[in-house]
């Protein structure tokens, strides 16, 4: 019984299925108009898609209405464009007219109408792709470029202006992944609208485009498509390929050339620098000039012929006549020693001297310049330190005139030059300017150029760094003299800068200058005894009494000192030799002794040698001068 | 013989003058086409922007209603296909263009502008006025044609058509949509007519009848 039942069910199901099949006939499904396109704005085609056909053969028909009428028209051509299409030819196409299109699917059981589809032919233009695309490689001064030529699609009537097309090109290297798209190309004579791109001049209907910046040896593929002003893009045209020949990259060659050129230039420069090595050194690292004595020949000295050496130093016209001295005395002599100073000088310690001077009664700036300025004094005060070791040599300051002396307290001679970094520089010329008798050759340059004038101070003063030594005298009192004398001297008019007067004191360091001045508080004169190795003036104070090692040579003007004749244009101090031979010799001996004493105190051999040389220079002749500048140079 | 020789320079001068005139004509055409292309692009942008602000339901509804005759320029008879356009003379095309532009000169002020459009309403009207002037110049320059009768007929029609008739509608969205659609269409028409006319008057061999 079971298999009978199953058999029955089977038969029943079969029958049912057959019946069901036969019963599955429905009216057709709803079709849908997918799109309508016009290739040239003269005809157009519409496509629709079918729904289910309901199991029965279904026919489709397309109906349309035009904008202003209610007349229903049917599609004139179902065949031309293929299945499920409707083609409207020129006669049936109106532009700028709204079409209302519907598709009806009909079968034996019923029909179904699609949704209406509105279309204006003017806005559904999708042209065919451009035709006759050609690509060629052209040369342009080692820069090949591609010239792309094409024609508009055959049917599009661009000739009469009915439709205007714009084009687009895309380029790709063979193994590249993405296409490179050019800008829109709008042919014809129409001015660009909305910054549209370059114009292309067609030859006939042919459009042209150039592609630059190619890869050397690359294999390029080119495509082009077009679009009406307001419409859809066409399909890409067929691909055209071309191979770019190899060419030397201009970039690389340029770089190579530049590299070679720069290497060449570099070589030349190094060679030039090498050639001028010495002068470059001179320029960049100028040597510190040593003291120079004009006319002093090093070689002669080495040869040992002192006569010739010193003869070379002789200058005519020196010494100044004695008749001038009175004038100078009157002019230059200005002794200002305040009471406080006198007291101070008479035995107080050095520090108080300096500090007292700040209180000296005087008007603001009469004649003392900034010597008495507060800052100056304070600096001087600060500088003053008692120094035990006294290399109190007796410096011998060559004096030109009576009034033009550098009076030094015992052991104190220093120059304060707060205004210049190189204090020595500033002061030196000043000091000696005073000593100079109105020489018209005082051409040393003061304040603005003082720091640069290494020669002058170096000639006269030691150039070693300034050591504030307690042995050095405070100058303010002396400054007064200097200041006035300077102002009076013809050649020293440049020194009226108060700054300069900060330092019209003799600078020096104890060991360098050998200013081992005695601690007498009275005014003392110093003679330039010698110039040591470090271009320092070795001064020796001159005291009234000629006993003892520190005998000042100053008694009268012009007798025992070397007078500074002047400073010539080379900033060379022109000293006069001792007039009195005998005395000179005595003093020479004297000096020698003194110097030797000094030497014993631990000076270097160079000093001794210097002294000796100086001794020689100063003693033998009765006339002439000692040109300290040149003399110093030799040391 | 002498007369022939006298005529020759006259003819040459006339030839040069006509050449100059033709070039000037082309230049004016170029400017006019340029401007109308710009206007068309503007109109299209405005329409698209407005459509973008609509809801999908509204859009469907409006599409359906589009069938009716509501453009104010419908009274102006204009060629609606290529054949008709090419049959028309240059002067006729210019006249039609002139009227189309004129019909929009003031109603363009009521066109709505979305935020993306930077033009204010007066600027659009100014552009249309300028273009009208240009077309007028072209008409004068091409006036050698004998005015045909049908041109006269069409000139007597009211320029604004049924614009004012439809102003009473309160449905602003629909009205704006219609206005923008009509404006876009008319600008396209004028662009096509002017381009065809220019091409026909062009000295180059590209544009042929």
Report on the structure:
Chain A is of the alpha+beta class and 635 residues long. Helices cover 28% and strands 18% of the residues of chain A. Chain A has helices at 2-23, 250-275, 277-284, 298-303, 306-312, 323-332, 339-345, 350-356, 374-383, 423-435, 455-460, 476-488, 510-513, 581-600, 605-618, 628-634; strands at 32-37, 44-49, 59-66, 72-74, 85-88, 98-107, 110-113, 117-120, 131-138, 145-151, 165-173, 180-181, 186-187, 199-200, 207-211, 219-228, 240-243, 525-531, 537-542, 564-567, 573-575. In chain A, strand 3 and strand 4 form a beta hairpin. In chain A, helix 7 packs antiparallel against helix 8 (350-356). Chain A is rod-shaped and about 160 Å long. Chain B has a single domain (19-200), classed as Up-down Bundle (Growth Hormone, Chain: A), CATH 1.20.1250. Chain B contains seven helices and no strands. The interface between A and B is large, with 36 and 38 residues. Chain A: Belongs to the type I cytokine receptor family. Type 1 subfamily. Chain A: This is a receptor for the anterior pituitary hormone prolactin. Chain A: GO terms for molecular function: cytokine binding; cytokine receptor activity; metal ion binding.
